[in-house]
Every structure is written in structure tokens, then in C-alpha cells.
Amino acid sequence: xxxxxxxxxxxxxxxxxxxxxxxxxxxxxxxxxxxxxxxxxxxxxxxxxxxxxxxxxxxxxxxxxxxxxxxxxxxxxxxxxxxxxxxxxxxxxxxxxxxxxxxxxxxxxxxxxxxxxxxxxxxxxxxxx
Length: 129
Hints:
Elements: H1 6-11, E1 14-19, E2 22-28, H2 42-57, E3 64-73, E4 82-92, E5 96-104, E6 110-120
Antiparallel strand pairs: 1-2, 2-4, 3-6, 4-5, 5-6
């Protein structure tokens, strides 16, 4: 999946671990990710979380897409911060899945909490598997 995910590649995401209903990824914040207030744009933490969500809900080879997402920002993020997003499955249903993603920085401070519900299409991500 990462091979074709050009946006996650642009973010500089490194996949640390993936298993059924779980993923852990990280990235380093770059200067071009800063907003007009001198802190990292909220879309960066959201996008990192969204990628962790996608890796966690698609790793059973059942194409799953976001149905609903929300995020809470708990601390500001700065240039040079190393962010880790860990996605954990709370529910694995036939047609939906529910995931909680925690984003922490290099000091192990929680900077964002993301919740995502996915819809399972029933289509294969990888043919023949």
C-alpha cells in the first residue's frame, strides 16, 4: 500500500509496524509544514493519523475507505518534532471498522487523538490473495 501512497511518501512517513487492525508509523516535521502562527498546520497531524488509520484498516486485504473521522489537537507541534501515530482497532465488523489513533512526539507527549470509522468495500487490495 505504501508503494502507491505518494502523499504518505511526501510526508516522509516510515512504517514501523503493521498487523491485523494495527499500524505504527512515524515522520519528522519539516519547515514547509508550518502555518501562519509559526506552529505546524493541523492538517499534518491529521494526515499522519489518516495514514495510520488507512494502514490499520486495510491490512486484511479488504479495501476499506474512511466513512467518518475526527481529531482533537492536544499540544502544538513544531519543526523538527518526530511524530509517531499508533492505530489500534476497536471494532472489526463485516462492513465497518472503528479505530483510535494516538499521535505522540519525541518526548512521548500526546499531541493529537484521532478516531476513524471505515467502510469495508469487500474488494481485494491485492488480487489473488
